C-alpha cells in the first residue's frame, strides 16, 4: 500500500519535473526527472526495510511495540493504562485488506499504533487488549 502511494506521488512529480521543463525551456531539462526517479528507487527499498522493522509482543503485563531501522523506537504500554483500543482502516487500507490497532492511554505521548494487520488479527488483538486492560485496571 505504501509503495503504491510512493509510486503515485513520485510518478506525478517525475512527470512534472521532466515534461514541464522540457516543454517550456529545452529538452535537456527533462533530465530533472532523474531526481524523483532516484528518490522513488531509494524510497522503494527503504519502505521494505521499515516495514520489516515493525514488531509487537503481548507480554505478561504489557504490550511491547518496536519499530525503526536507523532510529529504533520501543513503546511499552502496560495493560492497566490502556483506556481505549480501536481498530481503524481507511479506504486504501481496506482495499488492500489491512487494518491498524491504535492504543490510547491517559498520557498522549504514549499512544501507540500497530499498522498493517489483517482485519481479523486486528479485531482479535483489540478484544484481547481490552480484556487484559479491564482485568488489570480493576486491580488498581
Notes on the structure:
With 140 residues, this protein is an alpha+beta fold. 49% of the residues lie in helices and 26% in strands. It has four helices and six strands; from the N terminus they run ααββββαββα. The strands form two sheets. Strands 1-2-3 form a three-stranded antiparallel beta sheet. The longest helix has 23 residues. The radius of gyration is 21 Å and the shape is elongated. The two termini are 41 Å apart.
Residue fraction in strands: 25-35%
The largest β sheet comes out as: 3 strands, antiparallel
Q: Mean pLDDT score, rounded?
A: 85
Total helices: the number is 4
What is the helix content? 40-55%
List low-pLDDT spans.
none
Terminal Cα span: 41 Å
Query: How many whole angstroms does the radius of gyration measure?
Result: 21 Å
Number of strands: 6
Described by the principal axes of the CA atoms, the overall outline is: elongated
Strand order of the largest sheet: 1-2-3
Structural class: alpha+beta
Give helix and strand order, one letter per element, not per position. HHEEEEHEEH
Summarize the structure.
This protein is of the alpha+beta class and 140 residues long. The protein is built from four helices and six strands. A hairpin with a 5-residue loop joins strand 2 (62-67) and strand 3.
